[in-house]
Amino acid sequence: MLCAEFRADPENNPPRTPSARIELYSDEIARFAYDDCLPYPAWIEPAEWLGGAQTTAFPLHLVSSQPRLHSQMDAGPVSARGKIAGRETLAINPVDARSRGIGDGAVVRVFNARGACFPGVSVTEAVRPGVVRLSCGAWYDPAGDEDEPGCAHGNANVLTRDHGTSRLSQGPSSATALVEVAKCADPPPVRAFAPVPPTVQA
After folding, report:
1. Are 176 and 52 in contact (CB under 8 A)?
2. pTM to 2 decimals?
3. How are strands ordered across the β-sheet holding 177-183?
4. Among 124, 118, 113, which Cα is nearest to 138's?
5. What is the DSSP letter of 88?
6. CATH top-level class for 60-183?
7. Residue 125 in 3-state DSSP?
8. Element (H, E) at 111
9. What is the pLDDT along the chain (202 residues), one digit of tens a residue?
10. Contact 180, 58 (CB under 8 A)
């Protein structure tokens, strides 16, 4: 239903809801009795966010945006133009970059308790202090070990929680993760697009 049609003629273009009215409460969702998805609009505290009681070891809020069609276009020219040093780009505010001794174009280590990755840096005021943006979609390029899984190419999925937003929606909770960013003198090489060597059989 288009809202314009409803506004123009609500009698003949009612909302497709059980009551044929605009509903702010869902009896159907209420029957599920999910504690993480209420039947009405409500604030539910994210598992990780800067306003929470989490440790200050990871003082930056990571926004893992979606600039393209997941990883399908990562090897293409549009994606390549947005990379720095052949890696996904991390946007960081000048205030946070200065306090960490990080310059524009550097390769950094972004990490939390779940893992680490190594993107290139864009210092910009397009993100506010305390927030960094690392778009998802970089082809996974293993770097690290079992104790700290990582991605040399800058894949944000090694940093985000592997939990759905709620039992009802199961959407990705990628935009609510806390991280730290540090200088990296010797980042691992990017091998995401290197041909896989043929298997040698004995």
Report:
1. no
2. 0.82
3. 120-123, 89-92, 131-134, 60-63, 177-183, 108-112, 115-117, 149-151, 142-144
4. 118
5. P
6. mainly beta
7. coil
8. strand 108-112
9. 468 888 889 889 888 888 888 889 999 999 999 998 999 999 988 888 888 766 678 999 999 887 665 677 888 888 888 899 999 999 999 999 999 999 999 999 999 999 999 999 999 999 999 999 998 888 999 987 777 779 999 999 899 887 778 888 877 776 778 999 999 989 999 998 888 777 766 5
10. yes
Task: Tokens 């990705």: give the residue.
Answer: 172
Helices (H), 13-93: 27-32, 77-81
Domain boundaries, given as residue ranges, for the chain: 1-44, 60-183
User: Could you tell me if 118 and 109 are in contact, meaning their C-beta atoms sit under 8 angstroms apart?
Assistant: yes
Which whole-number Å values give the CA distances from 171 to 42, 106, 137, in the listed order? 17, 33, 17
- Residue 71 near residue 151 (C-beta atoms within 8 A): no
